[in-house]
Write a structure and sequence with these properties.
transcription corepressor activity; HS1-bd; rod-shaped; coiled coil; Heat shock factor-binding protein 1; 1 helix
Length: 81
């Protein structure tokens, strides 16, 4: 009998196991990359929406301030008698 492990069934399983492990590693890396890409996309969307809401709030505050100022000019407070 020979001590050559490359021809034994166990050695063949180990070799194919390495191939399966490489495939599994590659598959997991692909899934993790897709997940990371999705999270990055969602994060970017959330940041854009927050920026949009911030702009709207700023516009609303300006409009309210303008209305309050125009209301004071048009209707000065009544003098007390």
């Amino acid at each position: 009998m020979s001590d050559d492990k490359s021809t034994t069934p166990t050695a063949q399983l180990e070799t194919s196991g390495d191939g399966n492990m490489n495939e599994l590693t590659s598959l997991i890396q692909g899934v993790l990359q897709q997940t990371q890409d999705r999270f990055q996309h969602m994060s970017d969307q959330i940041i854009r929406r927050i920026d949009d809401m911030t702009q709207r709030i700023d516009d609303l505050e300006k409009n309210i301030s303008d209305l309050l100022q125009s209301n004071q000019v048009e209707h000065p407070p009544a003098a007390n008698n």
